[in-house]
Specification:
heterodimer; A: 244 residues; mainly alpha; 81% helix; 0% strand; globular; B: 313 residues; alpha/beta; Rossmann fold; Alpha-Beta Plaits
Chain lengths: 244, 313
């Protein structure tokens, strides 16, 4: 337990000492502003809620999360520091969890930094703060799932660029699986049961239901299990590297 | 104690370590010698639990590295090849991180840091980022993290590679000061280092142990061991010496350097007193020459042992 905390602390610290943290938060804030106010028609809708803000999160994460996760393992593999880390009295599971949690906590901090939007919407009207809270939670859970995928992709390659692209592609699949475009096109030729399971695999399906204000155990469990599965895959990939 | 039993490591079709067996007891400083790609680093990576062996076992103080990696890792301090570190961290931040992972808390961390910073003379770079340090300092930071928990077993992969002579001397002094009741394994391809710090030399090539002996015994394996080099100041003396010493040659043919008026005579298998006979001959003939007795050239032993393995492979 303690080792997870130490690894996490170091990893979080490195986000800030490499200035990645500042660049990431800045770009995240600017882009969510652009999406919310220009593409999401925040004012024109005349509704006091943050739906236009949260609706764009899956797409925003699609390229911001890989940027955050690509260095998790690829950098260690490239510099050789992985040899140092894994010859310390730390298990691979602890190392994987520590690094993942650092990235996830950081994603949470970035989300919290968007609080001025929440203040604005409360100033302008009388939004349902329960829905907003639930959306924030859903967005954070979804970011964790993106990051878990990114962690595994980063362990696959020494190259951060490859890790970035792989993570982007796999995450895109998970997002698109719930998009009407994809669902409609497969509806014609696969059984309904399969269409439902594909839709159930999608980040969008679960994120949309949470951001409507309903925190169901099913959706929370979904995101948690995606994280567990991909983190377990990360452990397997690193173990395979040791016995290659 | 470290017991390595029939260790095999394959990378695809390449056999990096080939049925390697070793037993190392406390107090030994083992010099791991071998050409590049001989399997030195791979063996060290398996000993430290970073890589899993294809077959065979490694036991450290009776604990199997594969079954109980965390317990074994607690006993070992390890400097990987090239001394990798988290380059964006400061020396202080990095060493604190390692001390925390090694289980120290609060004031213990400060005490351990003080100790290694002093031992490795790092106080001037304590608050600098590791990426801005010179190669020598980076290596010393790597050594500092390896000894921070005062381990009983120290495994150093090319600790002096790329250091200047003063820094090399410092590292060797450190190894000597640590060596009393610990196991230290040092890989190198600098042969002088083995005679300077090691109590045991193991030469490996193609993943196999070719030679396992004391460093001084390695010198006696050289054809230069007990050889005598004669150097004259002029050509006429040199010509006289060449004819006079012809009778003395029992072993391999002498090596002659005409330009330097110098020749090296080798000891035959049976005669042990070559130096005595050469000085006697010089006395009798009255020829002036500088006489140097050779101890043995490690480079030559290294080459002949590892080349022999190449030919027989």
């Amino acid at each position: 337990m303690n080792a997870i905390k130490i690894v996490m602390k170091r990893e979080l610290g490195s986000y800030f000492s490499t200035h990645l943290a500042y660049v990431f938060i800045l770009i995240f804030l600017v882009l969510s502003g652009v999406f919310t106010f220009y593409l999401g028609n925040f004012y024109e809708r005349g509704q006091a809620d943050l739906l236009p803000f949260f609706n764009f999160h899956p797409w925003l994460y699609l390229f911001l999360v890989p940027a955050l996760s690509m260095r998790l393992w690829a950098e260690e593999l490239k510099s050789g520091s992985i040899e140092l880390l894994l010859t310390m009295p730390v298990t691979i599971i602890e190392a994987v969890l520590g690094k993942f949690l650092a990235a996830w906590v950081f994603a949470g901090v970035s989300l919290v930094m968007t609080f001025p939007l929440w203040l604005t919407v409360n100033y302008l009207g009388d939004p349902d703060n329960g829905v907003i809270f639930s959306s924030y939670l859903g967005s954070w859970l979804m970011a964790g799932s993106f990051l878990a995928i990114g962690s595994c992709m980063s362990a696959l390659s020494k190259s951060q660029v490859i890790a970035f692209i792989l993570c982007g592609v796999v995450c895109l699949l998970f997002v698109l699986a719930g998009y009407p475009l994809v669902l409609n096109s497969i509806k014609a030729w696969v059984p309904l049961l399969l269409v439902d399971s594909v839709a159930n695999l999608s980040f969008l399906t679960h994120f949309n239901s949470i951001s409507r204000g309903i925190i169901s155990l099913r959706d929370v469990l979904y995101f948690c299990s995606v994280q567990v599965v991909w983190l377990a895959a990360t452990v397997v990939v690193i173990k395979a590297r040791q016995s290659r | 104690m470290i017991e390595v039993n029939h260790l095999v490591k394959k990378f695809g079709s390449l056999i990096a370590v080939d049925h390697l067996s070793l037993k190392i007891v406390p107090g030994e400083v083992l010099g791991f010698l071998g050409p590049n790609g001989a399997g030195k680093s791979t063996t060290m990576k398996i000993l430290t639990g970073y890589l899993k062996p294809t077959s065979g076992t490694v036991k450290v103080n009776g604990l199997n590295v594969e079954h109980d990696p965390v317990s074994v890792k607690k006993l070992i301090g390890y400097l990987p090849e090239g001394a990798p570190a988290y380059e964006e961290m400061t020396t202080r931040g990095f060493l604190t991180f390692v001390a925390e992972l090694r289980g120290y808390v609060g004031s213990e961390i400060v005490a351990r840091l003080d100790h290694v910073v002093d031992a490795m003379s790092l106080s001037s770079v304590l608050d600098r980022r590791i990426e801005t340090l010179s190669k020598g300092f980076k290596r010393r930071v790597g050594l500092a993290q390896a000894i921070i928990h005062d381990p009983n077993i120290l495994i150093l992969d090319e600790p002096t590679d790329g250091l200047d002579p003063n820094q090399k001397h410092q590292v060797r002094e450190l190894i000597r000061s640590l060596s009393k009741d610990k196991i230290i394994i040092v890989s190198t391809h600098i042969l002088e280092e083995v005679t300077a710090v090691c109590s045991r030399a193991v030469i490996i090539a193609d993943g196999k142990v070719l030679e396992d002996c004391e460093p001084s015994a390695l010198e006696t394996k050289s054809k230069y061991h007990g050889a005598v080099t004669l150097t004259c100041s002029c050509e006429s003396d040199f010509a006289k010496i060449r004819t006079a010493t012809e009778a003395l040659v029992a072993g391999p043919m002498p090596v002659v350097d005409e330009a330097a008026f110098s020749m090296t005579l080798f000891q035959g298998e049976s005669d042990q007193a070559l130096l005595l006979r050469v000085t006697k001959l010089l006395d009798e003939t009255g020829i002036a020459a500088e006489v140097v007795s050779e101890k043995g050239r490690l480079d030559e032993v290294f080459r002949s042992i590892t080349k022999l393995a190449e030919v027989s492979a």
